[in-house]
Amino acid sequence: MERNSREYALWSIGMLLVLLFALIPVIWIISLSLKTPATITEGTTFWDRFIPQDITFDNYTALFEGGIDESPFIAPLINSILIASITTVIAIVLASFAAYAIARLDFPGKALILAGALAIAMFPAISTIGPLFDMWRAIGLYDTYAGLIIPYLSFSLPLAIYTLVAFFREIPWDLEDAASVDGATPFQAFRKVIVPLAAPGVFTAAILVFIFAWNDFLFAISLTSSDASRTVPAALAFFTGESQFTQPTGNIAAAAVIVTVPIIIFVLFFQRRIVSGLTAGAVKG
Amino acid sequence: MAEIVLDGVSKRFPDGFEAVKHMNLEIGDGEFMILVGPSGCGKSTALRMIAGLEDITEGQVRIGDRVVNELAPKDRDIAMVFQTYALYPHMTVRENMAFPLKLAKVPDAEIDEKVAAAAKILDLEEHLDRKPANLSGGQRQRVAMGRAIVRDPSAFLMDEPLSNLDAKLRVQMRTEVARIQSDLGTTMVYVTHDQTEAMTLGDRIGVMRTGLLQQVGAPSELYADPANLFVAGFIGSPAMNFIPAQLEGDRVRLPFGDIQLTSETRSRIGGDGAGRQVIAGIRPESFEDATLVSGSERDRGVTFRATIDLVESMGSELYAHFKLHHEGVESDQLEELAQDSGAAEVPGGAAEGQIVARLEAASPVKRGQEAELWVDTDKIHLFDPSTGESLTRSA
């Protein structure tokens, strides 16, 4: 009993440390985003600097000032949302077909496909940037949605496929046989039985792909040149202060907080659906 | 309603394993056909070929008057119940049962009606809106049955539907299955490894081993007249005892005495009168405690003495185990023969020289004591040790 409570205490301390480590930067950013440009560097003690003296929302309102034409933030935000969503939808559709085939069928070259997918996922993205930049400019994909969606797909698909294969493999074969005897075509069996059952896997894969596309900075900064397709992470680098002599720290902090919110909502929303044991009751036990 | 015909059907898997070998079977319209055999005998593969879940390597499967070899399962008008039930866990019981009808684009009103009717038959009315995860094993099994019967298919295929239930429920569902089949009068092919289930349920039984159909017939026929060692050992519980014997002229020399064959049996066996090795098969119930056998009956059989190793009392009867002292034939030789013929795959049927006799409960036999036993020689089966074929089969 004593040992248990000591173990519990140690675990609690460990978790607390991890939590602090992860949350302090986030809290700091929020704190920064609420300070006026003048007070950003003020304060001598830790707590003075950590807690904003006079709270202001100017940094947030400034981001949206001037509507879509003037604001440096609205257009990239829309780009980010659209590009990440389109990437997620395409990746999930393609990955679920591919994963289903890999999980269910024995075809020549299956091992090669899986190994190839893994190799692509491990490939350092930075080494593809130069060639992509030249190629995209040559074929007119530079600074377009497609120009970002294509590399995002190629790097996130392997991950999505691997995740989904693991989930599809968990689904008993018998269910598919039952569906086909019940009169379903292979596609109906897939859509009405397999995909609903693999829903936790589908959502997991969707979150992973979305976060990857949403967070990417490397492709976004290299393959875009204007608000036509620049996403938020890249746009942040182009923020300017109110005058030549002020840092846009407060604005960047406010933008960073805003782009974090959709991810948190996304994860919380889908987390409720990621219920393990959804297949309970399919077969005996 | 349809008959199902398997015409020279074989199944070879890509790795070269031949699961079903040239199977010929005709299942009549409305018949309850059982395929039984030990695991790996090809019975499930045969069923899955009828269902269309497994490609047919060779031969032809006909349902009704259509050749279905190339038809997808959904076009074969069959319903199947799986060993694991294979219920859709994300759907309620109602949705599970309605699923095949929805796919067939049956109008909603009709679906409701049919699901309600099936739920009534299967006593599932209170559970229609529950998910499979919240049902007991027996209820899930009934939902699987329900999903099959709502469609009113031309045939039911059942792949060990009761093997996941506990013993008591299994007996209960067994009667249920039999009742449903006879009420609906639909052709049914039922796969099981349990010979008791096979004996109690089927109109006819097909016994399979290593991909080959060994014998097809009514339960009583398989029991009384097995075609070979394997069927003899597989059907019946406890299993038939196999004893090495010597055929000399019209007499069979058994370790516990000689038997005079009837001239009819002798002529069926054929061959010259010279000595020949055979395997005698005696069912446990062909033995009796000699003290309980009346005089006139006694003359029909042979009486011998044996030391009882073990007595199992079932209440209504006794199982007495004893060993025979073989003369001439080594028991390991018999074991080898049994292995070749497949009798060794039968639990308890291995030729270890251990004999089980079923005696009346009134018998006073005691463990470790010598008792006088009687065996009904009319009911002895003789098998050819090289082929395993029955020598005494009447057909």
What this model shows, in words?
The complex is a heterodimer of chains A (285) and B (395). About 2% of the residues of chain A have low confidence. With 285 residues, chain A is mainly α. The radius of gyration of chain A is 24 Å and the shape is globular. In chain A, 32% of the residues are buried. In chain A, 72% of the residues lie in helices and 0% in strands. By secondary structure, chain B is an alpha+beta fold. In chain B, 27% of the residues lie in helices and 30% in strands. Chain B contains 11 helices and 20 strands. A 6-stranded mixed beta sheet of chain B has the order 6-7-8-3-9-10, sandwiched between helices. The longest helix of chain B is centred in the middle third of the chain and has 18 residues. Chain B is elongated and about 75 Å long. Chains A and B meet through helix 9 and helix 10 of A and strand 6, helix 2 and helix 4 of B.
